């Protein structure tokens, strides 16, 4: 039996998305920058996809720029905003994705800006009091705080972050890769200057995403080399991927509440059954439905010999998940997120992440295999 529970890393391609992409691959091979009929057809396809994305997010098509994925989009937001506005201070948290942390750390190492980290509690919640204090002391900052943590599922109220940023004239970028297509984003009301998407997190293809750029900010490209994306992103557009992205987001929004309820029920069931099987386990991050990303469950297991073998044993049993432990005095790389929230390096953790394609029968199998590991 093979069970895939690593949907936070990537999701299976939806059949409808695959079909939409195949149709484009078979019928559209023109370069969107070419002025002949084939090029115009490809350009029409790209712009139709842009309109679809913009409509779903309640913004103008002119505010959506296609990228190679979330990492490029995060880099574009951070590096281009810093350059355009000569920003010398940035605020983030130590639980951000490395696409954000490594980019900001690189800029600090080069002496471009000074970096401050907002406090987080043992569940990964940011301190809004500390954020406001940091902004009060550094009013014209770049703030980069994610919507939902990809490892521990803790949600951040990005609406509240945006309001604080507006109060202190800060530029706000949010890594929304884990929540795009899983929550409804109304970009007409969200006070964010940049949000991002990676299609493969919502049953779309790998290698394509987008960045939303609020029209109140003006930035220059991250990638030069052509006039594509209205002079904002050089490089021939990935028309197959763009078509797949638009279809994936359209599908996600069509049944969003239905799938959210189904996946939340799977997560709650997994928590309950795992606790019954191994009472000593705990959970990293927030677990309340209104505070936690419903697709992700991070389980902290009891201390065990060869804890790093847990994932291997699950893999042998046909279960795909991901995990790790907190860093221990530099002796292992570990999870920077679990380290930031004060995790114990002696306790192995496993991230199970769910999709609409998972079932309770699969959860039962996983729980049984976990129980067998701790009965050995």
Fold blueprint:
Layout (H helix, E strand, L loop, with lengths): L2 E2 L10 H13 L9 H21 L6 E4 L2 H16 L3 E4 L5 H12 L4 E4 L10 H10 L4 E3 L13 H10 L3 E4 L19 E5 L10 E5 L14 H4 L7 H16 L1 H22 L4 E3 L11 E5 L9 H7 L2 E2 L1 E3 L11 H5 L8 E5 L6 H16 L1
Parallel strand pairs: 1-11, 3-4, 3-5, 5-6, 6-7
Antiparallel strand pairs: 2-8, 7-8, 9-10, 10-13, 12-13
Helix pairs in contact: 1-8, 2-8, 3-4, 9-12
Give a short synopsis of this structure.
With 376 residues, the protein is α/β, with parallel strands linked by helices.
User: Structural class given helices, strands, pairing?
Assistant: alpha/beta
**Biggest sheet overview:** 7 strands, mixed
**Order of helical and strand elements:** EHHEHEHEHEHEEEHHHEEHEEHEH
Using only C-alpha atoms, the radius of gyration works out to 21 Å
> What is the rounded distance between the termini?
21 Å
Number of helices: 12
Largest sheet, spatial ordering of strands: 2-8-7-6-5-3-4
Helix percent band? 40-55%
Question: Outline, from the CA principal axes?
Answer: globular
Mean pLDDT: 95
